[in-house]
Design goal:
Elements (H helix, E strand, L loop, with lengths): L1 H9 L3 E3 L11 E3 L1 H20 L4 E3 L5 E3 H6 L2 H4 L1 E6 L6 E3 L20 E4 L2 E4 L9 E4 L4 H6 L1 H8 L5 E10 L14 E11 L4 H18 L7 E5 L11 E9 L2 E12 L1 H8 L22 E3 L4 E3 L2 E8 H12 E7 L2 E6 L10 E5 L5 H15 L6 E3 L5 H11 L3 E5 L1 H6 L1 E6 L5 E5 L3 H8 L2
Parallel strand pairs: 3-10, 20-21, 20-22
Antiparallel strand pairs: 1-2, 4-9, 5-6, 5-7, 8-9, 10-11, 11-17, 12-13, 13-14, 14-17, 15-16, 18-19, 22-23, 23-24
Helix pairs in contact: 2-9
Amino acid sequence: MDELVSLCKRRGFVFQSGENYGGLQGVYDYGPLGVELKNNLKNAWWSSMVFERDDIEGLDAAILSKKEVFKYSGHEETFSDPLVDCKTCKSRWREDLVVDKKCPGCGSGDLTEARPFNLMFKTPVGPVESEEGFAYLRPETAQHIFTSFKNVQDSTARQIPFGIAQIGKAFRNEINPRNFIFRLREFEQMELEYFVKPGEDESALDYWCEQRLLWWKKQGIRSSSLETYDVPKDELAHYSKKTIDIMYRFPHGLEELEGIANRTDFDLGSHTKNQKDLLLSAQVTENEESTMRLAAQDLEAKTWYVPYVIEPSAGVDRGVLAVLNEAFAVENVGEGKERTVLKLKPHLSPIKAAVIPLKKNKEELVMLAKEIKQGLQSLGIGRVFLENTGNIGKAYRRHDEVGTPICITVDFDSLENQTVTIRDRDTMEQKTVGISELQQLYISALK
């Protein structure tokens, strides 16, 4: 983990937020390369969920939420961690981190009884602060998908089964954020709520577990680094009938990368039953259609039901940490020398190609390098970087460290013969190609 943290700061992936003021625990900023990697991971998820399927729609819901949403969802009552205080060193710990009834900080056994601590952030709404005039910063992106279910269904004419996908920020007042960007107070989620008929939920859960494992492998995660964990009943969230966690071997140990939960009809049912203008009844008639805001109709049986939902929910930040850890390698390159390299999948690499003029002060080389860079950039595949430092060896090492798949060197032969040298990140092999071939070779190299 220390090597990853060092690389992330040195090369501009992730910084401690507000570091010049001592930082804020559990909050991080993504730097120039980190934001590209993060966006590429989100784009890969969005493409697989929305663009490549015909049964999922997208949503971008608000972060601020009326308190009633999380009252009726059960979060006000259940979304909490049991905490203990150490009377000796005055520290506070989650109960599950306390071993043998000893303080993890000082080792004292003088601890208080555990008591619940709600993890949701409150914020005042309006010009006057009051106990009633507040909203929550959402602790998950799911609830606004549920409250927007009928709007999405009506506007798209979707029939069950279908899903609603969302990527967005969530906030949890974690008592003990830890392990770099693994557990944060401000984080980002990639969540799908996939609605099915009751009775079809168990097979849908199995289907989505398989799909999500395959997707992570396409992001460069080895099978040997992944496991599935059937969450025991006494550890399930309040809304879950069954949850399968996809576990990854992070630098600090085997932990959850993504959870796939069978939320049954808990959420849609709760929001329906607890709103005065809505009605949930086994004897609903067609004339009461307008009141069944969060229900769906079985067109064959002409009956109404509240859909069940399967939820694959992945943390973006945990995903970034996983793909960085999986891609990170230190290799012997001969003569007692080593190189650090990120063997990221090309579609995730923050920089797709670096164009390097052999000498930074040679105007003709720099001008040609800029033309090549602009031509590749215009293809719209991703960021192409002009590395105008004049030191080829250092440029190669820098781009190995940040995961750039190919480097393109513009030298004096380029001016005479219209050729460039392409270097492959993983093999370090170099070959000379014509500039006229470059765009097609670039496209092929990034597949």
